[in-house]
Specification:
Elements lengths: L1 H16 L9 H30 L3 H22 L3 H23 L9 H11 L6 H21 L14 H47 L3 E6 L4 E5 L1 H6 L19 H15 L6 E8 L5 E13 L2 E10 L1 H51 L7 H28 L8 E4 H18 L3 E6 L6 E4 L1 H17 L5 E11 L3 E10 L21 H7 L5 H11 L5 E5 L3 E12 L22 E5 L3 H13 L3 E5 L2 H10 L4 E5 L7 H11 L5 E5 L6 H7 L4 E4 L4 H17 L1
Parallel strand pairs: 7-9, 13-14, 13-15, 15-16, 16-17
Antiparallel strand pairs: 1-2, 1-5, 3-4, 4-5, 6-8, 8-12, 9-10, 10-12, 11-12
């Protein structure tokens, strides 16, 4: 029974004390609501005891006043439960002050009702947060003091409105004093408990902050900005600066711990922060430890105020290892760049040295094949032509590989009739396949008879590598070229290409390796078939440039299938072509005067022979200086200048010639190969260039174009 009563009373207390709380309320608001409800409980308890006492003494007016005050306290509780907190507090404070004034006046000061002012002052501190609502507390205290003054000045010492009060002053005074003492004790205990809880919370927060402060990966200095000394530091700072305890660093000048080069920089940072130009500063600074170890750190400086004193929090993160790694990376990068430049220069020089004699070989081969020769010489000329073209292919592969590795290989976007392009491949490689006794078949989608925007040269190189390999590694059976449109829109088309053969095939454990640079399936393959091992590597990387991937399906002894899928843009401005065979015929340039500047006698003879066959009048110069002198004396329709010549190179010679005639067409005749060569040569005054070894039809086309443009001008 006793437990039930206690449990019921505790339930009533909890209902009243926690009335008005919501889940989203902050901790401080919850405390504020609970404290006010606790005050209401104590006030109503005191009223209840007072009402019983006054009825016992037959003081009905005093009992009625207490009941009225209790009603207003209940009303304040209701407002608080409805979350009208401010109105509830105002009502309770006014109610309490009026109650004390009226009770002291009705009973007189001799009854001791004014003693309730002592717990009242305490209860205001209890229900009003001193830290956050100090102005409100001062106002309430002022209001209470005014109430006390009114009470003491207006209330009589004794008042006999109630007849039975005459013999009750002493008992009333004693009971009021007892209740006041109990309330004062309760509120004092509550305030002390709140202060104790606050102190525990503060200590816990301090321990939490200290733990974070001392376990931080950053060393932290707290610097007094006015005195420019270190007021405090954490454990990490002690480790960073190689000292035994904080006493060795606290109180020292901040400049003692910077390198000489960064002392001035830190002063500038201080001035910037002092001028409030920035809220904080972040950057790299160099420090010196007690043992004179210099280390780099990422520093964050934040100003703050404490008791009107300005401090700087300096967070120091050691990045010495990162800086060292950056330095080593920079050195490695420089070495790699030097090596890359050396490789590029070497390849360029070797290209020049190889192409110059090769130009003579290929040029002579072309001339011999166009002229009369003995029947038994045909095989020797074919060998000469094949060997020179094979050597040229090897040189191009090495240079292309170097460009791709350096990331300098770029694709052009030009209209290409895909079906016509593939038909050219078929015509070209079917001859090679038939010569080896192989069948060459094709499966070309009819829907590919449109123009796509792509790089025909690079695409041709990919197919040339794949088809050449297919013919090379197939001894019987057939080669098949497949091109199928998988998907298309009005703007793009997805096309799958395949090159199939029935050759020697590739073992499954070697299929990944063959795409690596300078690698073939095995040593026997290299010994038997030769090659650099660059063809497939270059082809794969070129297909990657087209945003595709070159893949392989193969079975040893049964053949291989190389395939890739590309998404190509359709040329919206494509022209319609009539599907017919066209035969190229080289026209004659009657009466065209050409100045050829070339220091190599073989190359000069090759160029002179072709130009003469085309009806041109050729004048020769063996170097740039001689070319300028000849040009001063004779008027020419075209000049063909080698870039690398003794005494005066081709570019310098053209500069001098442009001073005489700035409109004469000029073609660079060069064995050098480098990035953006055409744009560079045009900027230097040339209108076209012909790489060595040159194809006769390429030189003829460029001469024809320039002569036509010159005549129109």
């Amino acid at each position: 029974m006793r437990k039930k009563i206690v449990s019921s009373l505790w339930s009533i207390y909890e209902y009243i004390a926690y009335s008005g709380l919501e889940i989203n309320d902050s901790a401080s608001r919850r405390k504020k609501i609970v404290r006010f409800n606790q005050f209401i409980i104590l006030a109503l308890t005191a009223n209840f005891i007072s009402v019983i006492t006054y009825f016992f003494y037959s003081l009905y007016i005093s009992a009625l006043i207490n009941l009225t005050a209790a009603y207003f306290f209940i009303l304040a509780f209701h407002l608080n439960s409805k979350r009208r907190f401010e109105l509830a507090r105002i009502l309770s404070i006014i109610n309490l002050n009026l109650y004390l004034i009226v009770m002291n006046y009705v009973e007189g000061l001799k009854a001791g009702e004014y003693l309730y002012y002592f717990p009242y002052f305490l209860v205001m501190t209890f229900i009003i947060n001193v830290e956050k609502n100090f102005k409100e507390l001062k106002f309430v205290y002022f209001l209470t003091i005014v109430s006390v003054l009114i009470c003491l000045n207006v209330s009589p010492f004794e008042n006999h409105y109630q007849l039975s009060i005459v013999n009750s002053f002493t008992r009333l005074y004693n009971s009021n004093m007892a209740i006041s003492l109990v309330l004062t004790t309760l509120f004092s205990y509550a305030i002390l408990r709140v202060n104790r809880d606050n102190e525990i919370t503060i200590l816990q927060e301090k321990r939490f902050v200290d733990t974070i402060y001392n376990t931080s990966l950053d060393g932290v200095f707290i610097m007094d900005e006015q005195k420019r000394v270190i007021a405090g530091c954490n454990k990490r700072a002690v480790e960073l600066f190689e000292i035994e305890n904080k006493m060795e660093i606290e109180g020292t000048n901040i400049e003692n711990w910077f390198t000489k080069e960064h002392i001035r920089l830190f002063k500038n940072i201080e001035e910037s922060l002092a001028g409030n130009n920035t809220k904080n500063w972040q950057g790299e600074l160099a420090f010196t430890s007690k043992r004179k170890r210099t280390f780099f750190a990422f520093v964050n400086i934040v100003p703050f105020l404490d008791n009107s004193n300005r401090f700087l929090k300096i967070s120091i993160l050691d990045i010495s290892e990162i800086k060292m790694a950056q330095f080593e990376l920079m050195k490695a990068k420089q070495k790699a760049e030097v090596a890359s430049q050396a490789k590029s220069r070497f390849l360029s020089n070797m290209s020049h040295e190889l192409r110059t004699p090769l130009n003579g070989i290929i040029g002579a081969s072309n001339l011999l094949l166009q002229e009369s020769y003995l029947p038994d010489q045909k095989s020797h000329l074919d060998i000469l032509k094949y060997s020179s073209e094979h050597m040229m292919s090897l040189i191009n592969e090495v240079l292309d590989f170097n460009k791709i590795e350096a990331g300098k290989f770029q694709l052009e976007q030009a209209p290409v009739d895909m079906k016509n392009f593939l038909q050219k491949l078929i015509t070209r490689f079917s001859v090679q396949a038939h010569a080896k006794g192989l069948k060459f078949s094709s499966d070309i989608d009819d829907h590919l008879d449109i123009e796509f925007l792509t790089d025909e040269t690079k695409l041709n190189q990919v197919f040339s590598n794949l088809l050449s390999n297919a013919i090379k590694f197939t001894h019987k059976g057939e080669i098949t070229l497949v091109a199928k449109k998988i998907f298309s829109t009005s703007q793009k088309a997805t096309i799958q290409f395949m090159v199939k053969d029935t050759g020697i095939g590739i073992a499954s454990n070697k299929q990944e390796e063959i795409f690596e640079s300078f690698t073939q399936a095995d040593v026997d393959t290299t010994r038997k078939y030769g090659g650099t091992g660059l063809g497939l590597s270059i082809s794969k990387k070129m297909v990657n440039l087209f945003h595709g991937d070159l893949l392989l399906k193969s079975e040893e002894g049964k053949g291989s299938t190389f395939y890739f899928t590309l998404e190509l843009a359709i040329n919206e401005n494509r022209k319609m072509y009539i599907n017919e065979d066209r035969v190229k015929q080289l026209t004659v340039f009657n009466g065209v005067k050409v100045l050829v500047a070339e220091d190599n006698a073989v190359n000069m003879a090759i160029a002179r022979r072709f130009l003469t066959k085309w009806g041109s009048e050729v004048h020769e110069a063996c170097n740039g200086k001689e070319a300028v002198e000849i040009f001063r004396q004779v008027s020419f329709d075209l000049i063909l200048i080698d870039l690398e010549m003794p005494e005066m190179d081709g570019i310098t010679a053209l500069t001098e010639i442009r001073k005489i005639n700035d409109k004469v067409p000029a073609i660079a005749f060069t064995a050098a190969v480098y990035d953006n060569m055409r744009a560079d040569l045009i900027q230097k005054g040339f209108m076209e260039f012909v790489p060595k070894p040159f194809r006769p039809e390429d030189l003829h086309d460029k001469i024809a174009t320039l002569i036509t443009v010159q005549n129109r001008a």
